[in-house]
Amino acid sequence: MAFVFQEQRLLPRLNAFENIVLALQVRDPQMPNRAIRRRAMEALESVKLAHRRRAYPHQLSAGERQRVAIARALATRPRVLLADEPLASLDAENAAMVAHLLEEAAANGTTVIVATHRHTFAASRILRLPSARVMTNGARRAALTGNGNGHALPASNGHPNGDGNGSAAGNGNGNGHVNGAAARPAWWRIVIPARVRQRRAARPPRLPLWRRAAALTANSYRLVALNGLRSWSRDARLTMPVTGTIALLLMLCGTLALIGIGVEAAVADQAGQASVVRVYLAPDATSDAVAALKARLMADRRVASVTNVSPEQALAEASKRPGLDSLASLSATNPFPASLDVRVRVVTQVAAVANSLRGDAAVDPSYPTSYDPDTYSRLRRFALVAGSVAGGILLLLAVVAYAVIANSMRGIAASRRQEVAITRLLGARGWMLRGPFVVEGLTTGAIAGALAAAVVAGAYLLAVSFESAIYVQVFPGVDATAVRYVLAAVITTGLVLGAATAMFGFRKARA
User: Fold this and answer.
1) What digits encode the pLDDT tens for the residues 66-109?
2) Contact (Cβ atoms closer than 8 angstroms) between residue 326 and residue 395
3) Within 165-279, where are the H helices?
4) CATH code, residues 275-372
5) φ, ψ for residue 152, nearest 5 deg
6) Cα angle 226-228-234, degrees, rounded to a multiple of 5
7) Which of 222, 258, 366, 486 has the fewest CB within 10 Å, making it most exposed?
8) How many CB atoms lie within 10 A of CB 80?
9) 3-class SS letters over 112-154
């Protein structure tokens, strides 16, 4: 079924040729693109608008828009054509041409139903509908055929009271003679009327399955992917707030993810090192004093193990930490002393073990151990406070992002509502309507995710480059693998948010 609307209902973002091509793609997506374009051009040529194929609806006159709408309806070769005032805004010459096209479509098997205030068509049945009621139902009559045979019954003239009179004409033959009286049927035909069998039109040859599948794939790509990208480019000014908001939200999430990974690694490292105390040996400590200290520690039930750490091992360990390698290079000698790593069985006994080592002859009196009672507790408090602040900021930004995205989607839905309605009237299926919105949302999310990922990656590289200068590891425990996972999560989240906002806009437009 096809429609010819009095207000044309052309898609304003497509030119005349593209309007007809879209109607053909929607009606039969298994038709090859070459056949679609050829049929669309033939339809424009039939209404004498081939030279205006690249003109948009706002560049066409009212009569030209009406002819494009008629060409769009006839190009699909429908079984039923509903036309509402198809001759509106047309001059006499173009009206005669359009009337001839409609009559030709009717002769080819299309049921043409015309709603008009003036009956100017050769019709086989006329219904007069004043006061929204069928006042006159014209008698059926066969349409004139091309071979000259046929009979015609003109419509009865209707009155408001429902009365009507009709006159029947004789049947005319193709040789030009007119018979005034029809032959009487046989008596048995009165008892058993003849059954009229409608002749089925010959079906057009179907394309092979592989060609239909290839055409369906190509047309689906054009209807979904290309139309979605085209819609995104045309709605760029409306989608920019959405893109910026999603990018800002993803940047904050990515940065917080890196900070969270670093804090978690630092807390885990401190938790693992909380039971380990490094005992720094005095420079003048003898081997006997060191052996006695080690034996004393091994005899302590609170100690699990004691490990010797040479100055070279301490230097190699320090070189892995940012800033300490450059600090060690300032001295001609190794600045790190020998030490003992003492692992305590219970974390709560670390303080007692560290205090018991003070005053030993083998221990450095100025800096005996690495034990700091407040380091681990301060780190846990910092992680708790930082997580609370980050969660509050993220929640606030999420509320603002929802408000911005919702307002932008309302604007996009308002601008696309007419397009969705017209496409549905053309017979578009659900995936043809939903697909371009999803592609548009995925494009928005991909751009927002790429921007956020670029900013997060740049911030990480900048922080790594400054670690040696400030002697502080900004993202402890965050390596290149963790950064890649965070960036992939940022881009994926952008795609999901973009698709979700697009579906929200589609529901608004469809409603």
Assistant:
1) 999 999 999 998 989 998 888 887 888 888 888 888 888 888 88
2) no
3) 187-191, 209-220, 227-234, 236-273
4) 3.30.70.3040
5) -130, 135
6) 105
7) 366
8) 11
9) EEEECCCCCCCCCCCEECHHHCCCEECCCCCCCCCCCCECCCC
CA-CA-CA-CA dihedral for 222, 224, 228, 229, to nearest 10: -40
What CA–CA distances, in Å, run from 245 to 85, 87, 413, 448, 480? 48, 50, 18, 8, 27
Strands, DSSP E only, in 345-395? none
Q: Is 427 exposed, middle or buried (0-12, 13-18, 19+ CB in 10 A)?
A: middle
CA atoms within 13 A on the CB side of 118: 6
First to last CA, the chain: 24
Where in the sequence of the chain do the CATH 3.30.70.3040 domains occur? 275-372
CATH 3.40.50.300 region(s) of the chain? 2-148
Q: What is the largest CA-CA distance in the chain?
A: 143
Return d(Cα 260, Cα 267) in angstroms, integer: 10
- Digit-coded pLDDT (tens) for 252-273: 888 888 887 877 777 677 666 6
2-148, what's its fold? Answer: Rossmann fold (3.40.50)
- Sort strands 111-115 and 80-84 into parallel, antiparallel or unpaired: parallel
